[in-house]
Amino acid sequence: MNAFIPGFGPLWLTLELAAITTLILLLMCTPLAWWLSRTRFRGKPVIEAIVSLPLVLPPTVLGFYLLIAMSPNGMLGGPWMALTGNTLSFSFIGLVVASCLYSLPFVMQPLQNAFESIGHHPLEAAWSLGAKPVDAFFSVIFPLAMKGYITAAVLGFAHTLGEFGVVLMVGGNIPGETRVVSIAIYDHVESMDYDKAHAISLVLLGFSFVILLMVYTINGKWRRRGL
Amino acid sequence: MKDKLYGRFQLNRPGFSLDAEIHIPAKGITGLFGDSGCGKTTLLRCLAGLERADSGFLQVAGKPWQDESKGIFLKPYERPIGLVFQEARLFPHMTVEQNLLYGVKRKRGIQRKPSEFAHILDLLGVEHLLNRKPERLSGGEMQRVAIGRALLTRPELLLMDEPLAALDNRRKREIMPFLDRLHEELEIPVIYVTHSPEELIHLADRMIHLQHGRVSGMGEVVEMLAQMSVGEATGFSDNQYEVVVKTIDEKTFIASFDSPIGELYLAAGDTRVGERLSLQISAHDIFLSDTPQAGGRMLNNVMAKVEQVEGLAAGYVQLTLAIAKNSLKVKISRKSFDACPVVVGQPVYAAFNKAYLSNLNTAYIID
Question: A131–B85: do the CB atoms touch at under 8 Å?
C-alpha cells in the first residue's frame, strides 16, 4: 500500500505516534493533574512551570536536551541501552518519549482545569453515598471531566501531529521508523517535489479539519444536554 | 448509655479553632445553631468524616467512628451517614432516579426494596421527577431529591448542612412540610445545621448552640432560645397566646381562632376545629397605623391602646399595646418611631398576617 498512496508510510507513522503519545499522556496526566488540582503543596508553582516549559521553549532547544539525554551515554539512553541493547535516539520509542514531553502541557492543562472547575463538592457527595475514591472518580469525576478529556486528547493529538523541530533533533529522518509526515513534507519541498508535498499536506489538512469538526459537534450536543 | 452519639473534637486551623463536646439522643432533630463562622459546618464535617480533627473521638450507637488515641478514623464512605448539603450537590450527568440509586448500590449490605423506594419517593413527592436531569429541577425539588438520596442508603445518622439556606422563602415553605413528615417518621438521629431561629423553632427538638468554636449550650429549643435571647432578637417570644380553632373556611383555607386578644384569622394549615394551640406573633411582624384603613388588607387588624413606650438597644423602640385585658408587644425602628411618634394612651391599629402556631409535637409558620 505504501507504494500506491503518496506519503502513506509517514502519515501512518505519524498517526501511530500521535495516538500512542496521546494515550500515554492521558494516563499519566490524570493522577498528576488531579493532584495538582487538589494540593496545597508549596512547590506547586514550580511543578506547574516545569510542566508548561514545552509551551514556550523552542522545539530545537527541547530536542537538543533530549538528544543529549537519549544518547547511549545519556541519563535516558544509557539505562535504555543496558535494558534493551538498542539506542533510544533515532528510534520510534525515542520519538514517543520526546512527543510525550513536547505535548505534555496540552494534555495537562485541560485536565487540571476540568478537575479544578469540578471542585470537591461532587466528590464529597459521592463519598457520603458510600463510593470509595476510585469508584467515585470513575462514576462522578470522570464523566463530569469528559469535556476536559476530549479537549486534552484533541490538543495532545493535534500538537503531536504537527511536531517538527523535536523530531528532527532526536529522530532524524529514518523511513518507517522516525520519518513522520511533517518531515516528509519538508523533504519533498527541499527536493522541489511540490506534487507530493501538496498531496500529503492536503490529506493532513482534511484530516485535522474532520477531527475538529467532530469535537465541536460533540461539544455542541453536550452543551445542549447541559453537560 | 442513653445517648446515641457522643463526640469530642479539637481542631486548629489558621484563625479558627474548634473545641466541642456533644451528645445526641437516639431520635429526633438536633439543631446545630450559631452565627456564620462559629464552626457549625466544621463540626458537621467532623461528624461526616470529611474533616479530621487533630484530637477527636466519635462514637455512634456504641461503635467508634473516630478515636485518635487508638488511631481509629472511619473514612466518609465507611460511615453509615446520610449527608445533605446546602447546595443539593446532585450529580448533573445522572437522572434523578440514578442519583437516588447511587448510594443504594454502594452502601454495603443494602438491598433495594421496591416498597421502601416507593415510600421515600412518596414521602418527598419526587416520583414524577425520576427521569429528569437535575438541571430541570427547581431548587426545592433538587433539595428533596438530595434528601431522598441520603435517606435511601438507610443511614444511622442524618446530617443536614443548612439545607434551606440557598432557597427563597417560597421554596422554603414548599419543602417544610416534607421535613415535618420526615421528622415524624425517621427513627434515626438528625443533626441539622442552621443559623435561622425560625427553622429551629419549626423543626428541631433540641439544639446545640455554638459560639466561636465552643459549645455554649445544649437543650430544648424554646428554653435555649429564651436563654440566649435569640427569641428576643426575632421577637417570637414576645407575644404568646393560647388559642382555640373556631372555624375553618373551606374556600379560603383561613381559620378563625379564639384568642385572648380577640378573634384572629390565619391560614388554616393542618389545624382542626376545636384544636388548642400555642400562637406566637413576632413583635417585628406587626404593622402599626393610626387608622383602620391603613392595615385594611391584612388578615388581622385589631384596635389597641398604647400602654408603654420604651427604647431598646440597636435602634429599636418597643411599644406595649393593651388589647382587651391582654397586651401585645410591637417593635419598630427608632427611625420610623421618630418619623411618626406615638404617645401613651393613644389608640392605634395593629395589623399582622404572620404568626407561629405550635402544639406539643409540631410547629409551623403561617402567613
Answer: no
